[in-house]
Design a protein that fits this description.
Strand order of the largest sheet: 1-3-6-5
Mean pLDDT: 76
Shape: globular
Helix content: 25-40%
Largest sheet: 4 strands, antiparallel
Low-confidence stretches: 23-31, 114-130
Number of strands: 8
């Protein structure tokens, strides 16, 4: 139990570090669209993969659609949206809010590759990928909620930094 708490704390610490770095690297960029859409795993997936979608600004209800549900389906899991790679090809994922503002991203799906399974620490106490995704999404939501309450713009998410932070956390760096 204590190891799981340490792991979650490490993930949260890495996410906060990522958030700080993302602000400094993207502060000069103005969003092209009023709604930002990105995926935790970037813009490419393999058939069968799932990727949480990051949609901002947070705190707003969105309707999320796929231009080709046979290639990428979208589904809502609790309060989060997930892209599910169904078949090879490309699909546009669009998120819109009740005022008609929208944003989109393109997801490309390749055929599933024969790859080695993810390494799991021998202790078996690591949080699952779904748990990590939920922790990431919740951390981003909380950071943006705090930033908004303090009159600061919401945090843009940088996939490369998020994945680097996760890799560090997976190696149990503190």
């Amino acid at each position: 139990m204590t190891s799981t708490k340490k792991r979650i704390t490490a993930v949260l610490t890495a996410t906060v570090l990522t958030a700080s770095l993302a602000v400094s690297t993207m502060a000069a960029e103005a969003p092209d669209e009023p709604v930002r859409v990105s995926g935790y795993k970037g813009s490419t997936l393999e058939v069968g993969e799932r990727s949480g979608l990051i949609i901002g600004p947070s705190g707003i209800d969105y309707t999320v659609t796929s231009s080709d549900p046979d290639t990428v389906a979208v589904e809502q899991v609790l309060t989060f949206w997930v892209a599910v790679a169904k078949g090879a090809g490309t699909a546009e994922i669009t998120a819109s809010n009740s005022t008609g503002e929208c944003g989109s991203m393109t997801l490309t799906v390749g055929a599933a590759a024969d790859s080695a399974p993810l390494e799991v620490p021998a202790s078996g106490d690591s949080a699952g990928l779904t748990d990590n995704m939920e922790i990431r999404q919740e951390m981003i939501r909380l950071i943006n909620q705090t930033r908004k309450a303090n009159g600061v713009s919401e945090l843009p998410v940088n996939e490369a930094l998020m994945n680097a932070a996760q890799a560090c956390s997976n190696q149990r760096y503190t």
